[in-house]
Write a structure and sequence with these properties.
The longest helix is centred in the middle third of the chain and has 76 residues, at 89-164. This protein has helices at 3-22, 29-36, 39-44, 48-74, 80-84, 89-164, 168-238. It is an all-alpha fold. Helix 2 (29-36) crosses helix 6 and helix 4 (48-74) packs antiparallel against helix 6 (89-164). It has 7 helices and no strands. The protein has one domain (3-238).
């Protein structure tokens, strides 16, 4: 394997390792977001898009080169049959075809996993943001519930005071103010509950997208293994 394809293979292994680490179930999205927000990443964030596009271009060029090599050794050319009749030429051509197909798989999956990894980073950040929003809205809703319960209790006490005839005028004004405050808190609670429900829906959607992406990744890995198995069986037959 030449130096460039060795580098591409190592890059593919690194991509697989990073995706496996990102899929660990005991590390939450909020924790990953805190890792992504470290100072070392913020210092290189300005070069992130350039590095992504540069790697895409390099991998696509290598992928197209691998496609060209596969077509070159797969399609018969002038004098190809005569060369294959030589003692070692047939095995040599099959070896070159196998290497070209291997390079095609390596470069193709490197491009695919590079795109998948960027998408996974984006989904993790979105899921962590939605989770933080849900926690904040839940705390606001709990605070509003406690405040509403407190004002309701105060309102009941004021009603009892009014029934006993103590300071009817002042108590009536206070009761009216408390009633308005309770209504305002109820409206705030309703708004917080709606926002919480919307955030939970968004979090569920992002979770479903992440699960769909994981299933698609597993399916592609399985297809890759199925493509390699016929190739290995074909090589055994040639031997």
């Amino acid at each position: 394997m030449t130096l460039q394809w060795t580098a591409v293979a190592l890059f593919l292994y690194v991509e697989i390792g990073i995706l496996l680490i990102l899929c660990l179930p005991f590390i939450s999205a909020r924790r990953w977001q805190s890792v992504f927000r470290l100072r070392i990443w913020s210092s290189v964030s300005s070069f992130g898009n350039r590095a992504f596009l540069t790697m895409i271009i390099i991998l696509l060029v290598l992928f197209l080169d691998a496609v060209r090599e596969v077509r070159k050794y797969s399609t018969p050319g002038p004098g190809r049959e005569a060369k294959q009749q030589q003692p070692n030429m047939h095995d040599h051509m099959h070896m070159k075809l196998f290497r070209a197909q291997r390079n095609l798989y390596i470069s193709g999956f490197s491009v695919f996993l590079w795109l998948v990894m960027k998408r996974v980073f984006t989904l993790i950040n979105q899921l962590a943001t939605a989770s933080s929003t849900c926690v904040t809205l839940q705390e606001q809703a709990d605070g509003a519930n406690q405040a509403a319960r407190k004002y309701m209790e105060d309102n009941e006490l004021l009603k009892q005071t009014l029934m006993e005839g103590k300071d009817a005028g002042a108590a009536s004004e206070d009761a009216e103010l408390l009633r308005k405050e309770v209504e305002r808190l109820k409206e705030q609670l309703k708004t917080s509950a709606e926002a919480l429900e919307e955030s939970e829906c968004e979090a569920d959607m992002m979770k479903k997208q992440t699960e769909s992406l994981s299933r698609e990744y597993e399916r592609l890995i399985q297809e890759h293994q199925e493509l390699q198995n016929p190739e290995e069986s074909g090589n055994k037959k040639d031997d």
